[in-house]
Request: fold
Amino acid sequence: MRISIDTDVCIGAGQCALVSPEVFTQDDDGFGTVVPGRASDAGGPLVREAARSCPVRAITVEEVTA
Ligand code: SF4
Reply:
């Protein structure tokens, strides 16, 4: 699974960090960011829930095979 945030779209709502704090956090300016080291290995329903909860759909969760 590969998780990314489109920083051009993120408005810093913080929903992702609330829903899935192990994978998402907020930078010093309040914008969403993926916790270091969690961009490719993290999975689980909370990640998808966080992506769905983002009001501007800035989060992309991709299945990566192999
Ligand atoms: S929920 Fe979306 S808009 Fe809010 S901080 Fe996370 S990525 Fe940014």
Notes: The chain has a mean pLDDT of 92. The helical segments are 15-19, 45-53. The longest helix spans residues 45-53. The beta strands are 2-5, 24-26, 32-34, 59-62.
